[in-house]
Predict the structure.
Amino acid sequence: MADERDKTGSVNDYGTDDTDLSMSPRPAVAPSPRRPVSPSLYGVMAEFDNPSDVVAAARRTYEVGYRRINGYSPYPIEELWEAIGFHHTSLPVIVFIGGLIGALSGFFMQYYLAVFDYPLNVGGKPFNSWPAFIPITFEMTILCAAFAAVFGMLALNKLPQPYHPVFNAPNFKLASRDHFFLVIEANDPRYDHDEVVEFLKSLEPKDVTDVEV
Amino acid sequence: MADEPYTEGPIHKTVPVVGPGLTFSSVTDKISSLVLKRKTPLWWFVGFAISFLLVQLLLLTITHLVFTGIGIWGNNIPVGWAFDIINFVWWIGIGHAGTLISAILLLLRQKWRTSINRFAEAMTLFAVASAGLFPLLHAGRPWLLYWMFPYPNTMGIWPQFRSPLMWDVFAISTYGTVSALFWFIGLIPDFATLRDRTRSKPFQIIYGMLAMGWRGSARHWHRYEMAYLLLAGLATPLVLSVHTIVSFDFAAGIIPGWHATIFPPYFVAGAIYAGFAMVLILTIPLRKLFGLEDFITMRHIELMAKVMLATGLIVAYGYIMEAFFGWYSGNIYERFMIYNRIIGGPYRGFYWALILCNVLAPQIIWFKRFRKNLLVIFLLSIVVSIGMWLERFVIIVTSLHRDFLPSSWGMYSPTVWDFSMFLGTIGLFFALLFLFIRFLPIISIFEMRTILPEAEVEEE
């Protein structure tokens, strides 16, 4: 599909993360009879066929100064997310808070119900039988922490997200199979289309393509 | 080095954890083709048909049970719990191996878990589904079972939180939920693979929705791996606590044979034992039928057999200790319980069958010749599954039928409805499994990619 389109683009200053899809008001290319209006670019993508190349390319890209970059791979590659400069995620804190909420709500639910609301006198045993409250408190901790992990991860990743510009790139289907991609987004402060294309070509990828929004 | 790139561990020749010659594309193609191909093999139809028939038997039994009552089973006084709880504990125990393989082996960085974890986790989910039917339906008024949940109600009452049966409600619900979440999260990248590879438009939409727009972004992978590890870290104490709480159903009771402090670790080891036996029963035929010998290698079979042996030894230790405590306590009721169970009681045959199945039979795993023989391991796994069922029978029925007061003693015999319910849940389990192996990737595709040699990032 992409080979039918013109491969020129322009600077796009909008957006702050890779999910921003706002369109530039200026057309990316001069209108032509075949293409009266053309979409602006999301970025430029380089394709690789092995993990070492994409990691080396990502490191080089980061060294040169690009920051709005991302890698795509069919399986998790630790070196890749380190190379693009993404080190810290707040997910562990979210999970911890989830667990804390679970523990406190589990324990205090039992405490309130067994001590205040519906106390049962069984052989004169104390109402606040906290050892007996431990199993349920523990299970509630795990349950809420697990929910926090799953929904926290999905929320931080902004999933479900059915559409994303990279799906328009040719061969991107192979990102879930055996190819690796590196994208420099058009909203990077140092983005200049021709420079970026030349730079990416210098990393010796299998292919360099424009990604439309 | 060049001829053994797949080994792990010290430098000696070991059977590799993946077959040679696998690449990202061949792994993807092989596993996704099992799902995406149009022609369903005949054996699948036969297997699913039989399972489905058993599900009908289950539905029939449940209908009769709910309309008529628990009296259709053989439960009586003194044996208030019988097949219902035996089967419940049996199924939950089987489920635990799946979580162990998914979660615990991940944390222990055992790469060999990769080709079996998806399948084992699915097995856990279906086992928990089958198990959950029993506590639901063994109640006298199952339509009131929602009273077990602490919801604000017009009766002004709350459940008894100090009861192990209540702990079970929370534990089993949590276990089912967390297992389902863990399994689904693991599937998301594979749904993306299927979405990208399927040629059928309806399935593209279905897999696309399930994949939630997953695109393999490195930033996403980082958070994903973090979530996966955290879930594994949460699932590990969960699996230990769930079967501990199930063991408390007995250990918190006062009758001899139940009131034993060894129950938590003994039950957990027994669960893993039974679970690995079931995983072996399922993987040995599946790898042959689907041609997955390169993914589930002899190394996997051997390692699983060794885990079975290890947990079998722990369980054997449990049996010895139970007998020892009974005698050492000097308590006349405990001593009688041991005498009744092992030496002189009417159900002693079951105890000795149990020893044969669970203690003696697995000792053949010590011998390499038998360990490497797939038929032997398959038959042994069936024997161990039966043995673990017998263990719960011995614990529940022989302890209940003769406790403190001889005038209360009784006998138990199952009815046809006990068997039909059990068979029905076996049918449910296999029906769900057959659906799973047809429509979902039975091996975790993206995780398999990570253990291939070409996944190594070479530093310059």
